[in-house]
Amino acid sequence: MTLDLYLPIARHSVDILLLLGLGTIIGSFSGIFGIGGGFLMTPLLIMFGIPPTVAAASDSNQIIAAATSGSYAHYRMGHVDLTMGSFLLVGNLVGGTLGVEIIKVLRHLGEAGFLIKATYVVLLSLVGTYMLVESIKSLRRAAAGVEGRAGSPLYLRLGQALPWQMYFKKSGVALSPLLPLFLGGFVGLLAGIMGLGGGFIMVPLMFYLLGMPMHLVVGTNLFQEAFLCANVTFVQVVTNHVVDLTLALALAIGSGIGAQIGSRFSAKVNGEQLRFLLAVIILAMMIKILLGLLLHPHYILDMKGIS
Amino acid sequence: MNRKIGSGRAVLILLVALVLLGIFSLPGRAANIRITPATLKIHGFFGGSILRVSGEIPAGTEAVIEVIGKTAEQELMRKGRRWDLWMNVGEIDISGVPGFYLVASSAPRLLSASKTDTPWGYGLWRRRVRFRGTFKQGEEALIFKEFLQLKEGHGLYGRFPGAVEVAAAGRGRAQARASFPINTRIAPGTYRVRVTAVRGWQVVQRTQVPWQVEMVGTPAFLTFLALQRPVLYGILALGLAAVVGFLSGVLFKRK
Q1: Which of 256-295 (A) contact B at CB < 8 A?
Q2: Is the pLDDT of residue A102 over 50?
Q3: What is the pTM assigned to this prediction?
Q4: Nearest C-alpha of chain A: how many angstroms from B145?
Q5: What is the DSSP string of chain B?
Q6: Cβ separation B48–A304 shorter than 8 A
């Protein structure tokens, strides 16, 4: 027995319980890891027959709910660095706009689809492998009773060498605001090209490059991602008409609840375990995309915009 | 003078023929085609439907029943292998074929894949299809086959050999009946339902009626907002997502 929900922009029906369940699971990842989960949600929606353009745009709409819910929960626990988040957000918005323009040119050249997937594979494998290795090292250090955290002294030195040094009280780090602006811009650029919020890249960079504590990374990224996704959603609604409000709302209800469950769960596990889990998820997704590039596709033809 | 009278008669005969043709092409009149539901309504909880068609045909004939969507150019991407990786390698535009097509027959042989010269079925569209884009000469059959597979995969094309039941209706007539699964991907618009009576491979009667698919209620309202009032739709999308996020936060805080 299924209760189908008709999605007028996607022009397809999906079981409402499936959408709510999907929203809750991915939303809980938002609460736990501080990522929007677009890199997981969009491929899953496509798997259930939603056209990719609608899936990506509607997902950015529903991320607003999860990010609002999650960042509000983290804010109440004092886990959001508003100053750092604002710098990241400004960079992200600029980079994102540039990324959208780049992808327009690439789409015109006809190479966008492949470039997006290839970028995904490279980034996911780099980020996933690095996080996995670092979290295993940290877990071993913790088991051996050695204190200290993983991090690159080179990046910390670079951050300290840049002009306009300021102290981010909440995060407890002193660095130039140019660094979060640049990082935000870089992630925004990649996210604009790949059509995602970019949380899965931003979270490791905030931890490893900005030196922020993991519990602040999660809340702060959700804070800036809520605004970033609001911007993407509005642009998609006005220019491409591909946001399906029914789909986004069903996912948002699930993810809003999931984000609350996730943020409570994240407070009970340590940072190393969180990073290890996220690394495994990122690598699993990388393998899925890589297989999609290597294995013979089910259909040789696809409706335009499907891949 | 005689010539003038002759041409006048011809015009009169033509007018009478046109009037008669008009009467007999009225929906459901000519072949007594009955369609259930008469209009398919796509509502908020639409999960697909079953279209039931029945039509009168001469006794002793076999039947082909078709549901045909509008013919429009369809833009497709072709995948290919480059550097051992699968990627889109070009665009193929397909025209001359409908976006939606279901066909059922009383005798399975009428929809045989090897019989391609029939005025129904995939063979009809194979003859009418036009390709434009990234393909080599001689690849048309392969492209059309892949197109059919894609459409069937999406539930927008379907072939049901032997799915039409024919029962005697008296006075030299028979009743042909078929049921078609309607996928949720069906687009709103006007479709044609066509009943063809066949003897041997010859068409002895062919009639068609229009069939409407409409989006109603919330889906129709949201589609209108998304396409005609995008700014309002955008504000609604952002507002609802933020409200849902805050509400779930507040709800959990209380608990």
Answers
A1: 256-257, 259-260, 264, 292-295
A2: yes
A3: 0.78
A4: 10
A5: -HHHHHHHHHHHHHHHHHHHHHHHTSTTTSS--EEESSEEEE-TT---EEEEEEEEEETT-EEEEEEE--B--EEEEEEEEETTEEEEEEEEEEESSBS-EEEEESSGGGG-TT---SSSHHHHHHHH-EEEES--TT-HHHHHHHHHHHHHHTTSEEEETT--EEEEEETTEEEEEEEEEE-TTPPSEEEEEEEEEEETTEEEEEEEEEEEEEE-HHHHHHHHHHHH-HHHHHHHHHHHHHHHHHHHHHHHHH-
A6: no
